[in-house]
Amino acid sequence: MNLSNCTRATQFILVGLPSVLGLESVMYASIFLLYILCLMGNGLIVMIVITDHHLQKPMYFFLSNLSIKDIGYTTVFIPKLLLNYLSANNSICFYCCVIQLCFYFLFGVTEFFIITLISLDRYVAICHPLRHSSIMTSGVCLKLVIAAWFGGFFSIIFQVVMIANLPYCTSNVINHYFCDVGPVLKIAGGDTRLIEALGFLVAVFVIVSSLVFTLISYLFILYTVLQMPSTSRQQKAFSTCASHLVVVSLLYGSVFFVYLRPTVKNSSFGMMKSVAILYTFITPVLNPFIYSIRNNEVKDSVSKMVERMVPGLRNL
């Protein structure tokens, strides 16, 4: 087939979520609820970090950026997914698909960098507490966050541009519930080996390097905590870091399965869609709750904000 003379597809059809006979409405209602919880939980984190000067610290600055990422990450595809279900029309225009893919991976890659920054801050705070304020200054934290976002952008932009310029002539059906790189490349014409190799190298660099850095940070933290003479201080340090490790385990475990593959052309995406639910729906909802559920500073800030919104609550 002469791909240069083909008529490129102007829209794609998204297959949607893994089908469970008779439970489709329940699944989509659950997704809507998870999305609302994600917006409320992450929006609350951003709001209290901005308004409460007691939370003007590196950890909460990085956490607020993670929350902004989660809001953008889920908004890239969940509203479209829900709209398609309500309208019974699973189509998405070609350029909408490219934009969705671009922002999905921008937020996704940036997440690994931000999680790495959080582990760096925990390392400095626990292993070098007296130097924490002088090392993690507001200027340094701002530069690190800017580097994380720009790093996410430049990690994916070249691959997205190449994907956008591929011919799509033989099929326009994407076996996923959003425009993910694997299912999109599967229906693309032409030679995709360079794009797949570039994507694999980026995934290895970003995912593996951030995981290694995070694990090394926590090994140093573990060693430092075990040297503490006070049991209460040990428990406090472990409590602070345990939530971060829960997020790391959930995120890296699922992403390793989906994206660290040298080739996607011959992959089956049934299982991948099921695994993708974990890091596209569950993790963004859990992030604000996992990070804050045992954090007294966050709880106090939320209580103060609620009391300001409902003045008579303190007297009840």
UniProtKB/TrEMBL annotation:
Main localisation: membrane
Family annotation (InterPro entries): GPCR_Rhodpsn, GPCR_Rhodpsn_7TM, Olfact_rcpt, Olfact_rcpt_6C-like
Any Pfam family the entry gives: 7tm_4
Keywords: Cell membrane, G-protein coupled receptor, Membrane, Olfaction, Receptor, Sensory transduction, Transducer, Transmembrane, Transmembrane helix
Keyword Cytoplasm assigned: no
Transmembrane segments annotated in the record for this chain: 32-50, 71-86, 92-120, 140-164, 200-225, 237-259, 271-291
GO molecular function, one term: G protein-coupled receptor activity
Subcellular locations according to the entry: Cell membrane
Membrane topology according to the record: Multi-pass membrane protein
A single cellular component GO annotation: plasma membrane
Segments forming domain G-protein coupled receptors family 1 profile: 41-291
SUPFAM superfamilies, alphabetized: Family A G protein-coupled receptor-like (SSF81321)
Family of this protein: Belongs to the G-protein coupled receptor 1 family.
Protein name (database record): Olfactory receptor
The species this protein was found in: Pantherophis guttatus
Protein's gene: LOC117657761
